[in-house]
Amino acid sequence: GGDHTITYPILQALAEKHGPVGLVHVDAHTDTGDRALGEKIYHGTPFRRCVEEGLLDCSRVVQVGIRGSSYDPDPYKYCRDQGFRVVPAEECWGKSLVPLMGEVRKQMGDKPAYISFDIDGLDPAYAPGTGTPEIAGLTPAQALEIIRGCKGLNIVGCDLVEVAPMYDVSGNTALLGANLLFEMLCVLPKVKTM
Protein backbone atom coordinates (compact mmCIF):
# COMPACT_ATOMS: atom_id res chain seq x y z
CA GLY A 1 0.00 0.00 0.00
CA GLY A 2 1.01 3.58 0.69
CA ASP A 3 4.09 4.84 2.41
CA HIS A 4 4.86 4.08 6.04
CA THR A 5 3.14 7.24 7.22
CA ILE A 6 -0.17 5.32 7.13
CA THR A 7 0.85 3.26 10.16
CA TYR A 8 0.84 6.31 12.44
CA PRO A 9 -2.94 7.05 12.37
CA ILE A 10 -3.71 3.33 12.46
CA LEU A 11 -1.71 2.97 15.67
CA GLN A 12 -3.42 6.08 17.08
CA ALA A 13 -6.79 4.39 16.59
CA LEU A 14 -5.60 1.04 17.95
CA ALA A 15 -4.05 2.62 21.04
CA GLU A 16 -7.31 4.43 21.73
CA LYS A 17 -9.02 1.02 21.91
CA HIS A 18 -6.25 -1.22 23.32
CA GLY A 19 -3.74 1.10 24.95
CA PRO A 20 -0.07 0.92 23.88
CA VAL A 21 0.52 -2.04 21.57
CA GLY A 22 3.51 -4.23 20.78
CA LEU A 23 4.99 -4.00 17.30
CA VAL A 24 6.64 -6.48 14.96
CA HIS A 25 8.24 -4.14 12.43
CA VAL A 26 10.02 -5.49 9.33
CA ASP A 27 11.91 -2.82 7.42
CA ALA A 28 15.26 -1.74 6.03
CA HIS A 29 14.93 1.45 8.08
CA THR A 30 13.89 2.17 11.67
CA ASP A 31 11.51 4.97 10.61
CA THR A 32 12.27 6.84 13.81
CA GLY A 33 13.71 10.00 12.29
CA ASP A 34 12.64 13.31 13.74
CA ARG A 35 12.25 15.46 10.62
CA ALA A 36 12.82 15.51 6.87
CA LEU A 37 12.73 18.68 4.81
CA GLY A 38 11.35 20.41 7.90
CA GLU A 39 8.39 18.03 8.24
CA LYS A 40 7.72 15.99 11.38
CA ILE A 41 5.35 13.55 9.65
CA TYR A 42 6.70 11.59 6.70
CA HIS A 43 7.50 7.96 5.93
CA GLY A 44 10.72 8.01 7.94
CA THR A 45 9.19 9.33 11.20
CA PRO A 46 6.05 7.35 12.12
CA PHE A 47 7.49 5.32 14.97
CA ARG A 48 9.10 8.33 16.65
CA ARG A 49 5.71 10.06 16.60
CA CYS A 50 4.14 6.87 18.02
CA VAL A 51 6.67 6.79 20.86
CA GLU A 52 6.06 10.47 21.62
CA GLU A 53 2.30 9.85 21.85
CA GLY A 54 2.62 6.69 23.95
CA LEU A 55 1.05 4.48 21.28
CA LEU A 56 3.67 1.72 21.56
CA ASP A 57 4.60 -0.58 24.42
CA CYS A 58 8.30 0.02 23.76
CA SER A 59 9.35 -3.10 25.68
CA ARG A 60 7.43 -5.09 23.06
CA VAL A 61 8.77 -3.49 19.86
CA VAL A 62 10.95 -5.61 17.59
CA GLN A 63 12.45 -4.26 14.36
CA VAL A 64 13.79 -6.89 11.95
CA GLY A 65 15.91 -6.50 8.81
CA ILE A 66 17.21 -3.04 9.60
CA ARG A 67 20.13 -1.92 7.44
CA GLY A 68 21.17 0.64 4.89
CA SER A 69 22.38 4.18 4.82
CA SER A 70 21.83 6.65 7.63
CA TYR A 71 22.47 10.28 8.47
CA ASP A 72 23.49 9.26 11.98
CA PRO A 73 26.72 7.54 13.08
CA ASP A 74 24.66 5.34 15.46
CA PRO A 75 21.36 4.89 13.60
CA TYR A 76 19.86 2.43 16.12
CA LYS A 77 20.59 4.44 19.27
CA TYR A 78 17.19 6.13 19.46
CA CYS A 79 15.42 2.78 19.10
CA ARG A 80 17.52 1.04 21.71
CA ASP A 81 17.16 4.00 24.07
CA GLN A 82 13.38 3.50 23.85
CA GLY A 83 13.73 -0.21 24.68
CA PHE A 84 13.14 -1.54 21.16
CA ARG A 85 14.83 -4.76 20.09
CA VAL A 86 16.66 -4.05 16.83
CA VAL A 87 17.63 -7.06 14.72
CA PRO A 88 19.90 -5.81 11.90
CA ALA A 89 19.72 -7.64 8.59
CA GLU A 90 23.26 -9.00 9.00
CA GLU A 91 22.07 -10.96 12.06
CA CYS A 92 19.53 -12.65 9.77
CA TRP A 93 21.75 -13.51 6.81
CA GLY A 94 21.91 -17.17 5.85
CA LYS A 95 19.72 -18.56 8.60
CA SER A 96 16.20 -19.42 9.57
CA LEU A 97 14.31 -16.83 11.60
CA VAL A 98 12.13 -19.45 13.33
CA PRO A 99 14.26 -19.25 16.53
CA LEU A 100 14.06 -15.44 16.52
CA MET A 101 10.29 -15.57 16.21
CA GLY A 102 10.11 -17.93 19.19
CA GLU A 103 11.83 -15.20 21.21
CA VAL A 104 9.54 -12.55 19.73
CA ARG A 105 6.42 -14.52 20.71
CA LYS A 106 7.67 -14.68 24.31
CA GLN A 107 8.42 -10.95 24.26
CA MET A 108 4.97 -10.06 22.89
CA GLY A 109 3.09 -12.29 25.33
CA ASP A 110 -0.69 -12.20 25.07
CA LYS A 111 -1.08 -8.42 24.93
CA PRO A 112 -2.19 -6.64 21.72
CA ALA A 113 0.41 -6.47 18.96
CA TYR A 114 0.60 -5.01 15.46
CA ILE A 115 2.57 -6.16 12.40
CA SER A 116 4.00 -3.47 10.14
CA PHE A 117 5.86 -4.79 7.11
CA ASP A 118 7.74 -2.45 4.78
CA ILE A 119 8.45 -4.28 1.52
CA ASP A 120 11.98 -2.79 1.51
CA GLY A 121 12.77 -5.11 4.41
CA LEU A 122 13.24 -7.65 1.65
CA ASP A 123 16.26 -7.60 -0.61
CA PRO A 124 15.58 -5.64 -3.84
CA ALA A 125 16.52 -8.77 -5.79
CA TYR A 126 13.07 -10.02 -4.70
CA ALA A 127 11.20 -6.73 -4.28
CA PRO A 128 12.68 -3.93 -6.38
CA GLY A 129 9.35 -2.07 -6.57
CA THR A 130 9.86 0.29 -3.66
CA GLY A 131 11.02 3.86 -3.23
CA THR A 132 13.97 3.23 -0.91
CA PRO A 133 15.60 -0.10 -1.82
CA GLU A 134 18.57 -1.24 0.26
CA ILE A 135 20.81 -4.16 -0.68
CA ALA A 136 21.43 -7.22 1.51
CA GLY A 137 17.92 -7.63 2.85
CA LEU A 138 15.72 -10.50 3.92
CA THR A 139 14.50 -13.29 1.65
CA PRO A 140 10.85 -14.12 0.92
CA ALA A 141 11.27 -17.35 2.93
CA GLN A 142 12.44 -15.32 5.93
CA ALA A 143 9.46 -12.99 5.48
CA LEU A 144 7.16 -16.01 5.70
CA GLU A 145 8.98 -17.22 8.81
CA ILE A 146 8.44 -13.84 10.45
CA ILE A 147 4.76 -13.57 9.57
CA ARG A 148 3.95 -17.22 10.29
CA GLY A 149 5.94 -16.87 13.51
CA CYS A 150 3.32 -14.35 14.66
CA LYS A 151 0.60 -17.01 14.70
CA GLY A 152 -0.88 -17.26 18.17
CA LEU A 153 -0.10 -13.65 19.08
CA ASN A 154 -2.89 -11.23 19.91
CA ILE A 155 -2.59 -9.43 16.57
CA VAL A 156 -4.94 -6.45 16.46
CA GLY A 157 -3.90 -5.22 13.02
CA CYS A 158 -1.29 -5.30 10.30
CA ASP A 159 -0.09 -3.46 7.24
CA LEU A 160 2.23 -3.88 4.28
CA VAL A 161 3.65 -0.63 2.96
CA GLU A 162 5.95 1.00 0.41
CA VAL A 163 5.04 -1.22 -2.55
CA ALA A 164 5.56 0.87 -5.71
CA PRO A 165 4.66 -1.36 -8.69
CA MET A 166 5.79 1.20 -11.26
CA TYR A 167 9.39 0.57 -10.15
CA ASP A 168 9.14 -3.14 -10.98
CA VAL A 169 8.29 -4.04 -14.57
CA SER A 170 8.25 -7.75 -13.68
CA GLY A 171 5.35 -7.38 -11.25
CA ASN A 172 7.16 -9.53 -8.67
CA THR A 173 7.03 -6.92 -5.90
CA ALA A 174 3.25 -6.63 -6.13
CA LEU A 175 2.92 -10.43 -6.22
CA LEU A 176 5.15 -10.78 -3.17
CA GLY A 177 3.29 -8.01 -1.36
CA ALA A 178 -0.11 -9.59 -2.04
CA ASN A 179 1.11 -12.97 -0.78
CA LEU A 180 2.57 -11.45 2.38
CA LEU A 181 -0.73 -9.69 3.10
CA PHE A 182 -2.54 -13.00 2.65
CA GLU A 183 -0.13 -14.59 5.12
CA MET A 184 -0.81 -11.77 7.61
CA LEU A 185 -4.54 -12.36 7.35
CA CYS A 186 -3.93 -16.04 8.08
CA VAL A 187 -2.22 -15.29 11.43
CA LEU A 188 -4.95 -13.04 12.77
CA PRO A 189 -6.65 -14.42 15.88
CA LYS A 190 -9.56 -16.82 15.27
CA VAL A 191 -8.63 -17.32 11.60
CA LYS A 192 -8.77 -21.00 10.76
CA THR A 193 -6.22 -22.31 8.29
CA MET A 194 -5.75 -25.80 6.96
UniProtKB/TrEMBL annotation:
Gene3D superfamilies referenced in this protein's UniProt entry, alphabetically: Ureohydrolase domain
Keywords: Hydrolase, Metal-binding
GO BP term, example: putrescine biosynthetic process from arginine, via agmatine
One Gene Ontology molecular-function label: agmatinase activity
Family matches, as SUPFAM superfamilies: Arginase/deacetylase
Stored PANTHER family: ARGINASE/AGMATINASE, GUANIDINO ACID HYDROLASE, MITOCHONDRIAL
Family statement drawn from the similarity comment of this UniProt entry: Belongs to the arginase family. Agmatinase subfamily.
Protein name per the record: SPEB protein
Record organism: Cochlearius cochlearius (Boat-billed heron)
